[in-house]
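User:
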Amino acid sequence: MTDENFDVQGFARDIHVLLVLATLRNGPKHGYQIALDVETDSNGLFQFRHGTLYPILHRLEAEGFIDGSWSKEGGGRRKKVYALTAGGRAHLEGRRAHVGEVVSRLLHLISGPGEAPA
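Assistant: Predicted structure:
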């Protein structure tokens, strides 16, 4: 990562992608369950607003990071269930170091002189 090409807004968008992929690491889920798990696992810090999650899921499916399949649970409505692919797992693992570096640099910047970053 170079300072000249770091896109703060793009990084913020990437967080949603990484949250979806990380949630699917635990097994296949439908969209509503993904949103619930992200909110629960982050103690409410991260939430998907209406209209945000499904475009992300469609894009990740088109990019091959997740697979979607239709299921009918308990005789009810059909739901699309998403599963992490090997490519999605690799993307998630590959972005971990990048996220760590960004967070580390941010903490360094906002820490006062002589203070250790939290």
